[in-house]
Amino acid sequence: MTQELPASGYSDGDVDTNSTSVTSLEELAAQRYSRRQALFRGAGATTMAFMGTAVLAACGDDDDDKKLDISAGSNAATSSGRVVTLTGSPADGEAAYATSWAQTSGTAVTLTGTGSVVSFIAPAVSAATDLVFTFTAKTPVGQARTAQTTVRVSPSALGFAAVPHSLADVVKVPSGYSVTVMTRLGDPLSASTAAYANDGSDSDFAHRIGDHGDALHFFGLSSAGGRDDGSSVRGLMVQNHENLNVQYLHPNGPTNVSSGPRPAAEALKEIEAHGVSVSEYQDAGSRKWSYVKGSSFNRRITPNTPMSFHGPAAGSSLLFTAYSATGIAGRGTINNCANGITPWATNLTCEENWAGYFRRDAADDAKRTAREMTAIARYGVTSRTGNFAWSTASSTDSIYTKWNATITGAAATDDYRNEFNQYGWVVEIDPYDPASTPRKRTALGRMGHEGAFVRAVAGQPLGVYMGDDSRREYLYKFVSSAAYAAADGASTSRLAMGDKYLDAGTLYVARFNADGTGQWLPLVFGSVPNRAATGTYPEYVFADQADILVNTRLAADAVGATPMDRPEWTAGNPVTGEIYLTLTNNNAAGRPLTGTDAANPRHYNDPKGASATAQYGNPNGHIIRLRETGDTTAATTFKWDIYLFGADAADAGAQVNLSGLTADNDFSSPDGCYFSRATNPAGQINPVLWIETDDGAMTDRTNCMLLAALPGHVGDGGAKTITNTGSGGATATQATYQGAPATAATLRRFLVGPVQCEITGIDMTPDGRTLFVGIQHPGEDGSAAAPSSHWPDSQTGTAAATVRPRSAIVAITKDDGGIIAL
Questions:
Q1: Does residue 316 have a pLDDT over 70?
Q2: Predicted structure pTM score
Q3: 3-state SS of 139-175?
C-alpha cells in the first residue's frame, strides 16, 4: 500500500523553530497561491508506490515580484524491485520552465527520463531506506527553485497475486504480466530454412529448434556482436533439447518405432531434434522480444556434432570406438537436461537419460566380461532395440549404427560396443563461437547428469554441484585443483578456461547424516574400495581413475553415498552460497515404509483422481539444501535441512503437508530450480528462488507450474519427527530436519503451464525485467490424429482441433517494466 511518510531526518526546512511572529515565506506563498499535495495511492500491498514528499513552495525575488511555485509530489513507500515514478510540477505547469531531477541521498539509483517526469527501479535494501530526490525548475530568465521528495524503500517482497490451479491449455501468469512466445519446436535458425509447417512433413532439424526444450540461459551480446554479460536487450539463447514428442514429428506418427526397421529419414529427423540450440534474441524496445532467424550466431548441436574428450578419462580404452580409435574424439550429445554456466561465459549441457537410446542384442551378454556386465547393469544399458530403434535404419551408416552397442568385431575399434561410454558427461559449449568444438569434461564423472551448478568464489577452488537423475541416485560435487581467479572470467579463450578449471580436481559424492550434517566422500583411485558384489554381479575392482570416472555410480556405491529421491537440479543462493537440490519424487519400491532416512524421510499415499489411484512412496518430492562448512567450495563437510516438502494441500494431512502449503503455493515433483541473477534486486540481499515442476502425481488438479520463493537459510527450522503410513495402515516414524514452513509472503505460484507440459528451463535478463521460461512437451499424451494440446497456438486464441503442440520458450515481462516477481 502506498503510504505518506512523516518527515524522516531531513525536513526540507518545512518546520518552524523560531518563536517570533514574523510571517514565514511558506505562509506568504500560501496566501498568494492555492497549494495542494498529490499522493498516488496503490491498489494493494502488491502494487508499486509512487512519489514523494510534501509540496514545497518558494518565492522568487525578481523585479516584477513574480513567484515560482513548484511541487515534488508527496512522500511515498515502496519495496525493492518496483518501479517508482517521480513527477514534478513547475509553476502551474509552465512549459517554458526547464526542469530536472537529481538524487540527493540514499542508495544510488539510475533515473530514466528527462524533465518533470523520471522513474527508477527501487534498489535492493536490507532494511527500510530513505532515498531523497531534488526537483529543480528554472524560469526562462534563470531563476531556480527546488523541492525535495523522499521515497522509503523496504526489503524485497513478492509483489504479485498467486496464480490459481489451472487445467487450461495456456500459460497463465499473474495480473500485470504479459507472455510472449519465443522460439518453438521447428522454428528455422538459418535464412534458407523454410518456416515450420507443423504437420509432420518438416525435415532438416540440424537447422531448426529441437524438441523438448529444457534448461536454457541468456548470454548477453553487445551491439557490436561481442560478449556483454550486462546486456538485457540482445543475447544468445542456449537451450537443451531433451527428448521427443515423436508422435507429432511425422505426418502420421513414427514408423516401426518400437522395433524397426525405421525409415532413415524419420530416424535422422528424430536424432537431429535432440541436442542443443543457440539462437539470437533481440529486444526491439520496451521488452518487445523476438528471435533473429538468420543470425550468424545461430547453431544446432546434435547427436552428430563432433566432440572432444578432456580430463582424466580422455584417451581411456573404455572410450575406444570405430569412430574414435584413441578415445579422444566423439560424436554428439543427447538427452540434454539441466545445465550450468561458467563465469567465463560458457554453457555446460548435461547428458541425462542417455542409456535407453542404445541397443544391445541378447547375444551381446555372453561376449561381455563380468566387469562389463556389472557396469552395463548399473547404468541400465539393457534395451534390445533402443528408445527409437535408430540402429535399424541402416546397416552401414554410422549415424545410425552407432546406436547398436552389440559386440560385432574383434576389437573395440571395430564396432560401437563402447559408444554408450561416450555419453553421460557434462559438455562445455562456447555459445559465442559457432565454429568451436564442444568438450566433454570427464573429471566431472559419468552418470545421468541433471545439471551442473557452478559456484565461483575468487581465491577458492571452483565448485560444481551435480544431481544424478534417477531414483536412489546421488548428489556430487567437483572441486577444481586451481583456485578461481576473477580475471579469468573475462577471458576470450573460454574453452581454455574450462581446461584450466574443469579438467583437474576432485570429484566427491554426498553422504547425508542423520544428525543434520553431511560429508563429501572423495572418488579418488586408491582410496575408493572395491564395489561389493550385489545379486548376480561380482565385486567390482577399479582399474584406475578413468575407470572411476566412467563408472562413477559404482564408485559412489562403494564409498557409501546416500541414495536420494531422484536428484535433479542444483542451484546456489548468490548471497549465502547455500546449495539447493530438488528431489522430484520416489515410489514405494524406491522408498518403502522401512526405507526412509533423515534426508529422504517420507513414505505415504497421495491418492490421485476420482478413482483415488494409490501413489505410495514420496510422490510429491522435496527440496533439500546444504551449507558448506566455512562457506568454502573445498569443504568436505556441510550442514543440511529440508527446505520444502511438496504436497497437495487439499488432500494431505499434517504428516504429509509438512511445509504448511495452501492452494496458493502447493506443488508436487520439484524439478528445475534457479535463483534470480545477482545483477538485479531480485537476486540481491534476499534472492528470489524459482521452482519448476515436472509432476504426474497432482496433475488431476492442476497443470505443472512455476513458483517464486523468498527462502530463508539452513537451520531456520528445526528437528522434526514424521509418522509415515504404508499400505494396510502400517506406520513408522522418521526423524529429520525441516526448514521454516512456507507462508504467503515466502512462497507463491507464479505460473501454470498448458496441458500435459513440464515447466523446465529458466533464466532472466541481467536487469531482471524479462523472465524466460521453457514449456516442454505440451500435449505429450496425444496423437497426430488427436492432439491433446494445441499450445502455443492456444495462447493467443482458439486453435483448430488438428493443430499440433510444440515445446517453446516464453518471455514474461511486467507491464510496468519492473523486476519480475517483486
A1: yes
A2: 0.92
A3: CCCCCEEEEEEEEEEECCCCCCCCCCCCCCCCCECCC
